[in-house]
Design a protein that fits this description.
Elements (H helix, E strand, L loop, with lengths): L1 H39 L6 H24 L14 H10 L1 H16 L6 H17 L8 H19 L3 H55 L4 H29 L2 H18 L3 E7 L10 H22 L3 E8 L3 E8 L21 H11 L4 E5 L6 E8 L3
Parallel strand pairs: 1-2
Antiparallel strand pairs: 2-3, 3-5, 4-5
Helix pairs in contact: 1-2, 1-6, 2-3, 2-4, 2-6, 4-6, 5-6, 7-8, 7-11, 9-10, 10-11
């Protein structure tokens, strides 16, 4: 009986919120009428886009309310209302999401009052279920109806607020367009980095190498000892240039990733890190199929960037890397024990981070290009955790 009463009480709170929102929607009718009339007389045309934005916020609140009760997220898909007044009006009127929200509002004027039935149900349920459960030891029959009312309200709201398939498709196309733009920007930034590394590093050393060989050739006949010293310097320059070229190659695609796979490459990263890194593997070192090369590369660079920033900014001597094989992809988790406080998109991983957030931004762009997700959790005081999920077919 106690559990039934507690569940019914939660359902009553849910229904009370729905009734309060329905009452607010009745008051909102006046705002909607003013916006429509203002648009028809042109003078108040600017009110319509703002009213549509307000409707979106109200519908969004209802989506969250229904999702909290049912445990299932309700997607939303809206066209942005930006630009000139004409463009804003056109977007507000032609957006399929506006029709979805108005349809929900019209239906909510009717079913939104279902919560009022909880009042008589409580009055009857306290007596009937009290006797039925307390004396006869049977299951409650009246109070569960309040829970069913809350379920019904959430189910109807989800059905009415779910965007049309074409709206979801348009939102997906917009998301992919932004992802492609981010991938192109990341690719261009990578090319500039490689060009800068070659120009400032290997190319400069090769120029110095060429000059020393030329000086050695001139001094060879008359001053062989000087020529021998120049050749020794030239050999050192050649070795340094080869080392820098190897580093550039590793920045493009580490050879160890191809030779030893993601698990071996990450363990090598952990061994070379300035932190005490623990690597945990779940389902990837059992000899099964490997993830696609692009997925492994994105996960490797995400872990490398996270460990680098953790070593620089977190103030923690330890970190943990966890690689997991999921049914639908790959997950990489890096966690330090630092001070936390890393911003979601503005800062790099670790405490503080770089000013521009280029480390985390680079991770996000690389992962977004593969339709993956990056989640950063970094409360003040720590710990900081970055989770990268990459979809793939095994």
């Amino acid at each position: 009986m106690c559990k039934t009463s507690a569940r019914a009480a939660l359902a009553t709170v849910q229904l009370a919120r729905s009734v309060a929102m329905t009452f607010g929607l009745y008051l909102f009718v006046c705002v909607l009428q003013i916006a429509v009339i203002g648009t028809l007389v042109v003078v108040g045309a600017w009110l319509l886009p703002e009213t549509v934005l307000l409707i979106r916020r109200i519908a969004g609140a209802k989506r969250k309310q229904a999702a909290r009760w049912s445990g299932r997220e309700i997607p939303e898909a809206y066209r942005p209302i930006t630009g000139s007044l004409r463009e804003r009006l056109r977007a507000a009127v032609r957006d399929p999401g506006t029709l979805v929200d108005l349809r929900w509002m019209a239906a909510c004027y009717v079913y939104g009052w279902l919560g009022l039935l909880a009042v008589p149900l409580w009055a009857v349920g306290v007596v009937v279920d009290g006797v039925w459960c307390g004396l006869l030891r049977r299951e409650a029959v009246v109070l569960p109806l309040i829970v069913r009312l809350a379920d019904l309200d959430a189910r109807w709201s989800a059905a009415l607020l779910r965007p049309a398939p074409n709206a979801l498709l348009a939102a997906r196309v917009e998301e992919l367009t932004q992802t492609r733009a981010g991938a192109i920007a990341a690719h261009e930034a990578e090319l500039r980095r490689i060009e800068r590394d070659l120009h400032d590093g290997a190319q400069a050393r090769l120029v110095a190498l060429s000059m020393r060989i030329g000086l050695a050739k001139r001094a060879y006949d008359q001053r062989p000892e000087v020529a021998r010293g120049l050749l020794d310097d030239a050999q050192e320059q050649a070795e340094a240039a080869l080392t820098e070229l190897r580093q550039v190659v590793r920045g493009i695609h580490p050879p160890i990733l191809s030779d030893r796979g993601l698990v071996g490459a990450v363990r090598a990263l952990a061994a070379g890190s300035g932190l005490d890194v623990t690597v945990r593997v779940d389902g990837l070192d059992d000899g099964g199929p490997r993830a696609p090369a692009a997925v492994e590369s994105a996960a490797y660079f995400a872990v490398a960037e996270a460990l680098t920033n953790a070593a620089k900014h977190s103030g923690s001597p330890r970190a943990t890397v966890r690689l997991e094989r999921l049914r639908t992809g790959l997950r990489a988790v890096v966690q330090d024990e630092g001070l936390g406080g890393a911003g979601g998109t503005a800062q790099a991983f670790g405490s503080g981070g770089d000013a521009g957030g280029t480390g985390l931004l680079g991770i996000r762009r690389r992962v977004a290009a593969l339709d993956g997700t990056v989640t950063v959790t970094s409360p003040v005081g720590g710990p900081t955790m970055i989770v990268v999920e990459l979809p793939c077919v095994w």
